[in-house]
Write a structure and sequence with these properties.
There is one protein chain. By secondary structure, this protein is α/β, with parallel strands linked by helices. The chain has one domain: Rossmann fold, CATH 3.40.50. The chain contains eight helices and ten strands. The protein starts with 7 loop residues before the first strand and ends with a strand. Bound molecules: the ligand O=C1O[C@H](COP(=O)(O)O)[C@@H](O)[C@H](O)[C@H]1O.
Length: 234
């Protein structure tokens, strides 16, 4: 199945093919924003899925010096950990042509993510409407670091602040996440979904929208920003 009612779904055979197409689309949007406003803001996700996307993106010929990049969420680990999303950005995205981009790291060095949330709130809240947000999804239906059944989920989906510290019960590490409200304050939102398992989760999340069980369903049903799904079977 490759259709979801009311949502634009782009289907590919592989994450590589998907990444090539999504990278072209993102570069097009960023270039257009730079032409119109002199700057652009790109929000990306961490985890394993976006690696091929970052390899494609970092070679795009746009004026990266006018692009601000930030993460949708961070795992509260040291920045040299292989599970650090910050490390992923620094090693896979901020290189080649994209090395010239400005990067706002969510890793502050605070021991507790709650203190980082307070320290970064004004900075992240005052960024302009994002031009592009690329969201991944875990097999449990989480997106950014808004996890099912975690104590902070409701606040992350409903509160007006830009950042929230979360403690998942379905995954390791405390997290720092942009909230739904801040993430959907974007001209373009893409879901980057790979594999049959995640596709089934997304289908279920959309057919039986229950944000407590599938936080990602709350983004689609918010109806504020059109969502484009980029899906590859492998
Ligand atoms: O923990 C996280 O998980 C999701 C999904 O990661 P993936 O490895 O299944 O692609 C990711 O979108 C998020 O940024 C990350 O912190």
């Amino acid at each position: 199945m490759n259709k979801i009612e009311g949502i634009n779904v782009n289907t590919f055979d592989s994450n590589q093919a998907l990444s090539s197409s999504l990278s072209d689309r993102i570069a097009e949007i960023l270039a257009c924003a730079i032409e119109q406003k002199g700057e652009a803001t790109l929000v990306v996700s961490g985890g394993r899925t976006p690696k091929p996307l970052f390899s494609e993106l970092n070679e795009q010929s746009i004026d990266w010096s006018k692009v601000t990049i930030l993460l949708a969420d961070e795992r509260w680990v040291l920045p040299d950990s292989d599970d650090s999303n910050d490390k992923l950005i620094k090693t896979c995205l901020l290189k080649n042509k994209a090395a010239a981009a400005k990067y706002v790291s969510l890793f502050t060095g605070h021991e507790h993510a709650e203190n980082a949330a307070k320290a970064l709130e004004t900075r992240i809240a005052s960024l302009p409407t994002f031009d592009v947000v690329v969201l991944g999804m875990g097999n449990d239906g989480h997106t950014a670091s808004l996890f099912p059944c975690c104590e902070q989920l409701e606040a992350g989906l409903t509160q007006p602040q830009a950042l929230i510290a979360t403690q998942p019960i379905t995954a390791p590490y405390t997290r720092l996440s942009l909230t739904k409200q801040r993430l959907l304050n974007s001209h373009n939102v893409f879901f980057h979904i790979t594999g049959d398992d995640k596709w089934s989760v997304l289908q279920t999340a959309l057919e039986q929208p229950d944000p407590k069980k599938y936080p990602i369903s709350d983004f689609v049903h918010a109806g504020t920003t059109p969502i484009n799904v980029y899906y590859s079977a492998a």
